[in-house]
Amino acid sequence: MIIYVGSDHGGFKMKEMLKKWLADKAYQVADMGPAQYVEGDDYPDAAAAVAQKVSEAGPGEARGILICRSGAGVDIVANKFRGVRSFLAISPDHAYQVRHDDDVNVLCIASDFTDEATVPKIVQIFLSTPFAKEERYTRRLNKISDIENKRE
User: Which is catalytic among the residues 48, 51, 68, 108?
Assistant: First the structure.
């Protein structure tokens, strides 16, 4: 599985730290930008690049991690893409629940509100927790897919 990462200027430092952590854990990582710190860049650019890759990859083939100051901007953008289920994590327990119940595939992190030491814990849970595949969870995800399909 490939992990696509992206940020804006507010999440750039945390993204660089996270890329190193992921590489040290032998994950395949693709940085969707920015390649360098650019003050005042726009979060939709990297968020769309990551979400597009996750959407195109199909179920279970890729995950995305996005970082901006609030985490909300990148989360909003990512959820515009078909098949992407993005969430803004507040803790490792939160990451567990949404992976387990909702089969989320894009993790958003708020760099201004998430301690750097907590980020690897959240990411590890996000990457290692399987979807439960219980009937009620699958039924709910199918309803989300139906909503996506009706909007076209």
Answer: 68
